[in-house]
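task queued by scheduler; priority normal; single chain, no ligands, no partner chains; default sampling; output format set to structure tokens
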Amino acid sequence: MKPAIIAWQAYIKARSHRWSARSLLEHERLCDAGGRTKARGRKPGTANTTQPGPLYDLLQLPLSNINADVVERWLIQQRHRPAVARAGFVRLRAFINWCAGRPAYERQVVPAACTKSYVKDEVPRAKVRQDALERQHLRLWFEQVRKLKNPVQAAYLQTVLLTGARREEIAALTWANVDFTWRRMTIADKVAGIRVIPLTPYVAALLIELKRRPDIHPDDPWVFSSPTAASGRIQEPRAAHDKVLRQAGIPHVSIHGLRRSFGSLAQWLEIPSGVIPQIQGHKPSATAERHYRVRPIDLLYMWHAKYEGWILEQAGIEQPSIALQEMSVTRRCARP
């Protein structure tokens, strides 16, 4: 009998047009065969090749063999990495349900493979993460970030914090999607596909400085470029951020924690509800937000710029004026 991974590949092909690039990558990683040399640094004592994805061995079985007992045993084997187990189970369940509704697989699949109570009992509960910068951290955090020798890493970390965007949304930003004239950026969004957010004064100044670097190639499309990365753009900012936190004496905050910081620190200001979630790309949480609140980008800019100014004030940094930005852009455009 054919292994279930063949049906899994058909599932990805049929559904991937509905997913973001990040979601597609996560599905591909779950069933990856592993064995490739690691492209980035590894922890001491670990293998120098990649491990198989958590669903790889399971998907080598015939689809009809993936029943509740098998899934339960798989979850028990994954207890040492609960987040991976939960993510894998959620996607496996969606895959099983998809197969159950397809004539090509409905006679092979076991629909109850992920629905038995004893299977659900083994699924790790999602942990609510609380890592975020506090107001008292901002001065030391910015001080150490601005000391980083790599200007791309320094600008990237500050941009993630000051936009509240997801790490890949900022990492994948291209110059074609940065509009200095109308002060806005178009970034990828895992929910809506794309979203437009304000280009605030300080972030604009950071990007202008990156654009004016003498070592940047005129045809390089990436804002946060990296000549050492296969993709040509920043891939792994965690090492730089860990260094910043260590030298600042701040407890661990993940890159996603910077996004969480943006949403949390806004509570110090009286910003209309819905503004911050819209900038961050959260789904509207109420009927009024979905159907009766239309905020143009210039209104978002007004509140976002005020919020950025407050964060910079806590960090002891002066927010650049719009006039100075426009002069910088003019000089950049006029440069031969």
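post-processing summary
- The first helix runs from residue 4 to 15.
- The chain has two domains: 4-120, 135-334.
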